[in-house]
Structure formats: C-alpha cells, structure tokens
Amino acid sequence: MDDPVLLTGAGGAVGAAILEGLEDAYEWKLMFHSPPAEEPDHEYLVGDVSSEGDVAAAMDGVGAVIHLAGDPRPEAPWDSVLENNIDGTQKMYEAAVDEGVEKFVFASSNHAVGSFETDERTPEMYRPDDQYRLDGTELPRPGNLYGVSKATGEVLGRYYHDQYGLSVCNIRIGNLTRGHPPIDYERGQAMWLSYRDCAHIHDCALQADYEYEIVYGISDNDRKYYSIERAKEALGYDPQDNSAHFDGEERVAEPEP
Ligand SMILES: NC(=O)C1=CN([C@@H]2O[C@H](COP(=O)(O)OP(=O)(O)OC[C@H]3O[C@@H](n4cnc5c(N)ncnc54)[C@H](O)[C@@H]3O)[C@@H](O)[C@H]2O)C=CC1
Ligand SMILES: O=C1O[C@H](COP(=O)(O)O)[C@@H](O)[C@H](O)[C@H]1O
C-alpha cells in the first residue's frame, strides 16, 4: 500500500492497538473526533464521519481505509448508532468510491451475531472443549441495536463492493484488552483479541487480495466459538496470543514457536 491509509476513530482503543503495532508500516492519515491531547506524528484531521465535508476531506488522497469511528457501546441507543455508525459508515463508503479507494476495512463486532449465544448454548460454548463455531458465513443475528448497526455496516460494504468494486473486509472484532485477557469473564476470554493480534489482523487486511470478506478478529484462544480459519485463509492471519496462556494478569505460557 503506497498511498496513505485513512484511520478513523484513531483516538480510540482499537486505533491505539493498530498504531502501536503498525506505526511505521504505513503512511497514516488519522481522523479524530476531537483534537488529540498530543500532537500526532502523522498527518491528521479532526472531524465527524456523519459530516459529508469532513469525510471528503479525510478521504482526499488516500488509497485504503480502516474505519473504526463510531459509537462502540453495546447499549448505545438507536439515535446514536443511526448517526455515528450507520449514516457515518455510508458516508465513508460513498466518499471512498468518489476517491477511488482500493480497500475498505470495517470494524464490525461480535455483537452483530450476539443472539447466537442462546440460553441453551451458554455458558458451554465459551469453554475450550466445546466445538460450536461461527465462521462468518452465517447471517447476522444481533443482540442489540449496536449489533444491528454493525450488521448494517457489513451490508453497506456488500453493496459498495458489488456495485463499485471496492475490496471490503469486515472484521468482527471480539474483545480487545491491553496486556491480558478479561479476568473472570469466560465470554470475554473466548473472544479476546490482544493488541498485537489486533494490529496484525489489520495489517493482513491491508495487504491481502480479496473481494468481500467477513472474518472474526480474535486471538488464537483455546476457548473460542468464532472460527479464525477464514481470517487465516483469506488474509494470512497468524495470531500469536491465546487467553489460555494467562492466569489473571500473569502470562503463564509462551506462544508456540
Ligand atoms: N474495543 C473492542 O473490543 C471492539 C471494538 N469494536 C469496534 O471498533 C471500533 C473502535 O472501537 P474502540 O476503539 O473500542 O472505541 P473507542 O470509543 O475507544 O473509539 C472510537 C473512536 O471513534 C470516535 N468517534 C465516535 N463517533 C464518531 C463520529 N461520529 N465521527 C468521528 N469519530 C467518531 C470516538 O471519538 C473514538 O475516538 C468501533 O467501531 C467499535 O464498534 C468492535 C468490537 C470490539
Ligand atoms: O463490540 C464491542 O464488543 C466488545 C466486547 O463486548 P462485551 O459485550 O463483552 O463488552 C465491547 O467491549 C466493545 O465496547 C464493543 O465495541
């Protein structure tokens, strides 16, 4: 990727993981919602993804997009997800087409499929010996309006891929936490995404050749109910971390060489 890569939501947690891992790997153009506390080392702008003008300015001159900006709260109300997540994502896609962007990577979520976690399947599906897997070919099944907005983002990508030819990768991100997996939270450990695996999967999504993909963005956890096979096949994802290698905050095993 020779052209700059636009990273929206650059001031957030996922943005931090990506920038920490890939700081020097790309020419970044960062979009913040409010002025950053410290002057970034990269080109940046402040704007809102629901503003056509801000989005056009952000998209100017970029060859690829990682779109993270939005309301990330599972309990977010409809008004907010409609404006920040759905309308914002549609404006991003429209501007990406106008700019002739090649690749669009969208931060989807485990919450797009949250209703697969039925009373009958839980908590067993969160455990290492359970074989239940979602693999990205299933239809969305959101458990909240935030999940509806993420499923809608995936469908917007399908439309812009089919009608305008953009390469689109939807990463259904699990639970990103810094340093160690969530503690006393089986579900969170099953969908843990470490900071370095988060940077790596986004790197893969910028480098690989694909048409339209939906993949799960989790580390290679012993506990899992999301398959990472498609991310491996389509993107060359090779995660290094596993929530089973931790006892609380402590790493108790190293990744396999
Ligand atoms: N952190 C996680 O474990 C997961 C995150 N995601 C998704 O990844 C993306 C990033 O999440 P986080 O970094 O955790 O959230 P965050 O809240 O830390 O970062 C989101 C950023 O987007 C910005 N933003 C919000 N609305 C905006 C708008 N209208 N225009 C411009 N910027 C706006 C916020 O100011 C914030 O800096 C979100 O789309 C979220 O839904 C999905 C699954 C799991
Ligand atoms: O999509 C998201 O998912 C993570 C994990 O979900 P949770 O229900 O286990 O909290 C969440 O932390 C994050 O805020 C959200 O954007």
TrEMBL record:
The answer to whether keyword Ribonucleoprotein applies is: no
UniProt keyword list: Carbohydrate metabolism, Glucose metabolism, NAD, Oxidoreductase
Q: Which residues form the active site?
A: Y146
User: Function of this protein?
Assistant: Catalyzes the NAD-dependent oxidation of glucose 6-phosphate to 6-phosphogluconolactone.
Instruction: Reply yes or no: does the keyword Membrane apply.
Output: no
Ranges for domain NAD-dependent epimerase/dehydratase: 5-176
Catalytic activity reads: D-glucose 6-phosphate + NAD(+) = 6-phospho-D-glucono-1,5-lactone + NADH + H(+)
Q: Where does NAD(+) bind?
A: N84, S109, Y146, K150
Q: Which top-rank group of organisms is this from?
A: Archaea
Region annotation (Disordered) maps to: 237-257
Q: What class of enzyme is it?
A: oxidoreductase
* HAMAP family in UniProt: Glc6PDH_archaea (MF_02046)
Q: Which family does it belong to?
A: Belongs to the NAD(P)-dependent epimerase/dehydratase family.
UniProt cross-references to PANTHER family, sorted A to Z: 4-EPIMERASE, PUTATIVE (AFU_ORTHOLOGUE AFUA_7G00360)-RELATED, NUCLEOSIDE-DIPHOSPHATE-SUGAR EPIMERASE
Q: Which ranges of the sequence are coiled-coil? A: none
Q: What is this protein called?
A: NAD-dependent glucose-6-phosphate dehydrogenase
Record's NCBIfam families?
G6PDh_Azf (NF041293)
Stated EC number for the protein is: 1.1.1.388
Q: In which pathway does it act?
A: Carbohydrate degradation; pentose phosphate pathway
